[in-house]
Specification:
Elements (H helix, E strand, L loop, with lengths): L1 E6 L9 H13 L5 E6 L7
Parallel strand pairs: 1-2
């Protein structure tokens, strides 16, 4: 089975608790030959 996760967390990936939860979930999900891909949506501000 394949899982795609799209995260719109506001904090940067290295400081995000959401990213840590997603990483832990994916590690558990991948134990039975499942695959995952993660996309982080970033907000770009133009002034």
């Amino acid at each position: 089975m394949h899982l795609t996760i799209i995260s719109g967390a506001a904090r940067p990936q290295n400081k995000s608790n959401t990213a840590k939860i997603i990483d832990a979930f994916c590690k558990g999900f991948q134990t039975n030959e499942n695959t995952t891909e993660i996309y982080f949506i970033r907000r770009i501000s133009y002034q």
